[in-house]
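Hi support team,

I've been running sequence recovery on a batch of backbones for a student project. Most finish fine, but this one hangs at about 90% for roughly twenty minutes before it completes. I'm not sure whether the input is malformed or the queue is just slow. I've pasted the C-alpha cells below so you can try to reproduce it. Let me know if you need the job ID as well.

Thanks,
M.K.
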C-alpha cells in the first residue's frame, strides 16, 4: 500500500504501479475468477500457478471473496471443485504454499498432511543429546552429574529439589534418564 495525496491506495502486482493504482474496494469489484487469472504466474519448471497477490508470512495467498478472507488455494478449490468437508484440508502435492494449480492440490486430513510432511522429510527435528544447544538449560552438565551422584548415594529427590531449587519432575526425569541421559 502506498499514499497518493493523503489517501491510502492499494497496488496489486498485476498492475503497473506508475500507471494504475486501484482502491481495495474497486479491486474487489473485479470477479474473483478474473482476479485469480490476473494474479497467476506459472512456473515453467514446476507447473505451479503462483499467487502474486497478498501472501501470509507462511507464503499462502490470501484473497477476499464476498466480504470474507480466504486462503487462495482453498477458495480456488471451492470455486472449481465444490465445498471442502469440515474435517478436511486442501493440501499441496508440490509443497508450494502459493500454488493454486488444481493438479497440484488434493483434499486430505491433518494426518494426511503430517504423513506427507514426514514422507518428504520436511518435519522439524530438534537436536537431541549433546547436539542440543543449552542456552536455555537450567542446569549445567556438572550440576546434572552432581544430582546423579546424589541419587546414587540414596538422597531423596525432594531434598535434591530443595537444594538445587528445581521442580520434582525435573529431578525425576534426570533419575529416569528421560533428560540428560548422555551425562
Amino acid at each position: 500500500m502506498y499514499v497518493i495525496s493523503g489517501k491510502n491506495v492499494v497496488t496489486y502486482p498485476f498492475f503497473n504501479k506508475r500507471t494504475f493504482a486501484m482502491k481495495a474496494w474497486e479491486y474487489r469489484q473485479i470477479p474473483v475468477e478474473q482476479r485469480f487469472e490476473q494474479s497467476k504466474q506459472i512456473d515453467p519448471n514446476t507447473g505451479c500457478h503462483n499467487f502474486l497477490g497478498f501472501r501470509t508470512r507462511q507464503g499462502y495467498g490470501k484473497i477476499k471473496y464476498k466480504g470474507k478472507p480466504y486462503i487462495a488455494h482453498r477458495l480456488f478449490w471451492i470455486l472449481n471443485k465444490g465445498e471442502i468437508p469440515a474435517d478436511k484440508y486442501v493440501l499441496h502435492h508440490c509443497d508450494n504454499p502459493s500454488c493454486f494449480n488444481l493438479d497440484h492440490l488434493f483434499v486430505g486430513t491433518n494426518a494426511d498432511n503430517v504423513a506427507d510432511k514426514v514422507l518428504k522429510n520436511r518435519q522439524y527435528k530438534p537436536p537431541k543429546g549433546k547436539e542440543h544447544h543449552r542456552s536455555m538449560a537450567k542446569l549445567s552438565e556438572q550440576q546434572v552429574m552432581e544430582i546423579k551422584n546424589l541419587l546414587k548415594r540414596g538422597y531423596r529427590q525432594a531434598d535434591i529439589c530443595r537444594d538445587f531449587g528445581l521442580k520434582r519432575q525435573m529431578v525425576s526425569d534426570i533419575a529416569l534418564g528421560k533428560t540428560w541421559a548422555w551425562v
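--
Follow-up from support: It reproduced on our side and the slowdown came from queue contention, not your input. Strands lie at 2-4, 7-9, 40-42, 49-51, 62-65, 68-71, 89-92, 105-108. No action needed from you.
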